Amino acid sequence: QSFKTKVLRNTLNPIWNHRGELSGFEAGDTLEFKVFDKDFGKKDDLLGEVTLSSDVFLKDGFSGEVPLANAGKDALPFLRIRVEAPLGQSPLPLPAAGQVQEEDTYVEPGTDMPVVMEATVGLACPQRPQRMLCCCSAARS
Fold first, then answer.
1. Cβ atoms within 10 A of the Cβ of 34, count?
2. Whole-number Å distance between alpha carbons of 48 and 51
3. Residues 72/75/80/83 CA torsion (nearest 10 deg)
4. I need a labelling partner for 62 at 20 to 30 A (CA). Which of 40, 54, 84, 122 fits?
5. What is the pTM of this model?
6. What is the pLDDT of residues 64-75, one digit of tens each?
7. Residue 110 region, left (φ>0) first, then alpha (ψ -120 to 50), else beta?
8. Cα–Cα distance between 24 and 109 in angstroms, integer?
9. Are 16 and 6 spatial neighbours (Cβ–Cβ below 8 Å)?
10. Residues of the chain with pLDDT > 70: what percent?
11. How far is CA 101 from CA 94, 95, 104, 141, in A?
12. pLDDT band for position 129 (50/70/90)?
């Protein structure tokens, strides 16, 4: 399952504010984000990517900036994202007497995961015109 933003033209600092949901999310899945320069008639150029582990956002959600890897020499871009805590979450069952309660959250298999791809800053793209888009997908561990 995946979704992508609309294409924004002529900017290295696109502001998408795009909300999407990934269906079928399970605890342990990761979120993968990839930013591309959209090319017509040939393969899109990857401008950066990041993977977010579910332990970062599963319990309380996540809102912040994450650095993009594989962004090219001397480029230090980041992606601003927000992942909301899934609505289907519920606390783990209470531990038996004498056991320690771990700080964790149970997520029903198949939960919808709300994700907002807000913006990217600092992209490096040698070609003009730029046509920026961001893709988000869930990966099973």
1. 21
2. 11
3. 40
4. 122
5. 0.82
6. 999 999 987 888
7. left
8. 7
9. yes
10. 82
11. 7, 6, 9, 24
12. low
**Tokens describing residue 55:** 């332990």
**Which residues are CB-neighbours of 85 under 8 A, at least 6 positions away?**
57, 58, 59, 60, 61, 105
- Which residue type does 123 have? L
Residue with tokens 């502001």: 15
Q: Look up residue 57 and give its two tokens.
A: 């956002």
Taking the alpha carbons at both ends of the chain, their separation in whole angstroms is 14
How far apart are alpha carbons 11 and 98 in whole angstroms? 58
Is pLDDT at 122 greater than 90 in this prediction?
no
CA quadruple 17, 45, 7, 5: dihedral sign: negative
Backbone phi, psi, residue 55, to 5°: -70, -15
What is the amino acid identity at position 132? M
